[in-house]
Amino acid sequence: MLQKVLSQLDQDRDAAVARLQDFLRIPSVSTKEENRTDVAQCAQFLADRLNELKFDARVHETAGHPVVVARNEHVPGRPTVLLYGHYDVQPVEPLELWKTPPFEPTIRDGAIYARGAADDKGQVWAHVEAIRAWQQAGGVPANLVLLLEGEEEIGSPNLQKFMEEHRGDLAADIALISDTNQFARGLPAITYGLRGLVYEEIFLQGPDHDLHSGLFGGAVPNPANILCEILATLHDDQGRVNIPGFYDDVVPLEDKEREMWRKLPFDEGELARELGLEALVGEAGYSTIERKWARPTCDVNGITTGYQGEGAKTVIPSKASAKVSMRLVPNQDPAKIRDAFERAIRERCPAGVKVEFKNFGLAEPLVVPLDLQAMKLAAEAVKVGFGVEPTFMREGGSIPVVSQIKRMLGIDTLLVGFGLPDDRVHSPNEKFDLDAFYGGMRTAAALYARLAEMK
Ligand code: BES
Ligand code: MN
Ligand code: MN
User: Fold this and answer.
1) Cα(261)–Cα(290) distance, rounded to whole angstroms?
2) Ligand 1 site, CB within 6 A
3) How far apart are CA 213 and CA 313, in angstroms?
4) For a tag on the chain, would you pick the N or C end, based on fewer CB atoms within 10 A?
5) Backbone angles phi, psi at 132, to 5 degrees
6) How far apart are CA 319 and CA 313, in angstroms?
7) Ligand 1: which of 153, 195, 367 to mutate, most ligand atoms within 8 Å of CB?
8) Ligand 1 atom having least distance to the Cα of 191
9) Which fold has domain 2-194+365-451?
10) Model confidence over 373-391: pLDDT tens digits?
C-alpha cells in the first residue's frame, strides 16, 4: 500500500505545489497585530483542508492565535503519532530585499519562494499531502493527532495552557515534527538535539529627557554609552559568555559525539563564502559544528537608542535598550540563566541609570535518545522518502514545544525536517526546494506506515 501511496504522491506533484501556494499566500505573521485576522484565516484554511480529507479538524481559540487540532478515526491498538507544526510565519521586513513579494509564492530555480516556504508551512504541507494520498488509498495507517499552532515564532506563549486543557486529546505514543533541516542538499537528516533559548530585552533609563550633548555631555550618565559598555562585557577574549554561573550546568560534549561530527562533510570555508564572510568566529576550542549545535551562546539581536534619523543631532539619549538572545544546551535551565543574566547586567550598571528587563520567552535545550525504536523506524522512512540514509545531527535553533511535549505527555519527539541550510528562513527570499518538498511528502507518507509498526 505504501508503494501505491508513494507513486500517487509522485504523480500528483504539480497539484500539491499549487495547494501549497494557496497556503503560502495567507500572510500569517504572528507577531503583528495587523495580521491577526490573516492568522485566524490561515488556521481556518488548515482545518477546512483537513476536514475535506475526512479528518476531524477544529480551530480552537486561545488568548492569542488559534490552535488547530485534527485527528483521523483512531483504530484501537494502533500506535498514535502526535504531529506538531506551526502555520505562523516571521515578519517579512525588509520588504525591498525580496525579489518577488513574500506572499506571492513564486517558483524559480527548482524552489518555491515565499515567507514560510520552509519554516514551517512547506513542511506542514508535505504532511497534508501525505495524508491526502493515504486517505485516498483507504486511510492513514497510524492514529494521527495534528497539533498546529499559530504562535511558534513568538515563543508559543499560550500553547502550554492549551495542551494542559486538552491533554486527553493529545495523548500519543510518539511525537513528530517537521520543522528542521536536512544536513545538506542530498543528505536528509534526523535531528536529535536542539538548543534552548532565553530572549531578554534590557531597558536603560538615564536623564528623564534627551539632553544637548554639548551642554550636558560629560556631566550625566549616557545610557547609550553605558549600554555599549555593558554589552561589551558579555564575552571574554576566548569567546566564552561572561555571565557568572552560565556554564555551571553545561554537559560537556562527549568524545564519541565529537568524533561522529568530525566525519560529517562540512566545509567551513564554503559556509563563510556563502555568508559573505572572510572567516567564521566563535568560542575557542570548538569546531563550527560544535559551536552551532552544542555550545551555549549570547548574542545581541538589536539595539535601540539615540538619534536614528538622517544627519547629525547632538543629543544624549535618555533611554537605551537592547534585545539579547542566549542559546542554551543541556542541562542549562532557562529560568536560572535568565536570572543570572539579569543579575550580571544589574551589577554592571553604574549609579544614575535605572535598568529594567522584559522576557520574550524561554525554551529548554534537549537531546532525544538515539536508541529509541521510533528513531530506527523514522530512519527507514527517510530512506524510503529520499532514497538516502539520514544523517543524525543536532541543530542550534529552538522549538519550545518539544520539551513541553516531553514533560506534559511523557513522550519523545522525532525531528524529521526537510529544510535546507540555505533556505534563508526568517530572512528575505525564504525558499523551499521542490525536491525537499517531494522527498518530504514521501518521507511523511512512509513515517505513518513505519511508526504504525511501533511496539
Ligand atoms: N523552525 C525553527 C527552528 C529551527 C530551524 C530548528 C531549523 C532547527 C532547524 C523555528 O520556527 C524557530 O524559528 N524557532 C525560534 C524559536 C523562538 C521564536 C522561540 C528560534 O529558534 O529562534
Ligand atoms: Mn519553524
Ligand atoms: Mn522560525
Assistant:
1) 8
2) 119-120, 152-153, 155, 179-181, 197, 361, 363, 395, 397-400
3) 9
4) C
5) -55, -50
6) 16
7) 153
8) 8
9) Aminopeptidase (3.40.630)
10) 999 999 999 999 999 999 9
Residue corresponding to grid cell 504504525: 452
Could you tell which of 123, 158, 179 is best to mutate to test the pocket of ligand 1, judged by most ligand atoms within 8 Å of the CB?
179
Domain 196-250+296-363, CATH among 3.40.50.970, 3.30.70.100, 3.30.70.360, 3.40.50.1220: 3.30.70.360
The answer to whether the pTM exceeds 0.85 is: yes
Instruction: Name the closest-CA residue to atom 4, ligand 1.
Output: 397
Give start-end residues of each CATH 3.40.630.10 domain in the chain: 2-194+365-451
Q: Where in the chain is the domain with CATH 3.30.70.360?
A: 196-250+296-363
Q: What is the pLDDT of residues 55-66, one digit of tens each?
A: 999 999 999 999
Cell of 248: 555551571
